[in-house]
Amino acid sequence: MMYITNAEPGDVPSLIENMGQTLGKLYDPGMLLNLINLWPQGCLVVRFANNINGFIIGVKDKPNNAKVLYLGVDNKIRNQGFGTRLMQKFITQCIIEGIPMVRLEVTTDNIPAQRFYRKMGFNIEKRLTAFYEDGKDGFTLVRYF
Ligand SMILES: CC(C)(COP(=O)(O)OP(=O)(O)OC[C@H]1O[C@@H](n2cnc3c(N)ncnc32)[C@H](O)[C@@H]1OP(=O)(O)O)[C@@H](O)C(=O)NCCC(=O)NCCS
What we know:
Distance between the termini: 31 Å
Number of domains: 2
Helix content: 25-40%
CATH superfamily of the largest domain: Gcn5-related N-acetyltransferase (GNAT)
Bound molecules: coenzyme A
Strand content: 35-45%
Order of helices and strands: EHHEEEHEHEE
């Protein structure tokens, strides 16, 4: 059975593999380990046996401010509600900690992700010109709860 739990330091290798598949980029293990240690309750994974099939990695960048850095679900299990559950669990954790809002960035051309975020109650806060390494623009999205 697949279930959602906090990420643990031992998940880093499997997490990197899954992030590579879903986001198309190889992330630094030390950076991920740091994020998991900084806010374990803000780093959640979809777990199946020994594999990671989805993730949401967040940080608290100010005391009352949470940001989602990475969100992805393995393409084999998309459209089954895991992305929604990851985000809902993340927001529940924010509410528990008294954090009233979450921000994230998305490339302007990632229409499926934008549709997903809109359904999850996010709104565009601003456009970010040439925000990404490859020169793409982004949007900052925000949801208050
Ligand atoms: C964005 C992403 C995380 C969504 O994950 P997901 O697990 O597919 O999300 P959900 O299943 O909760 O919702 C996706 C869609 O399935 C629908 N859905 C949810 N539960 C469902 C179910 N049980 N049965 C059928 N459809 C369902 C949702 O309504 C939603 O519809 P939409 O496409 O119109 O928005 C995923 O598409 C992904 O990893 N994309 C690539 C990486 C990426 O772009 N990340 C964001 C970068 S900022």
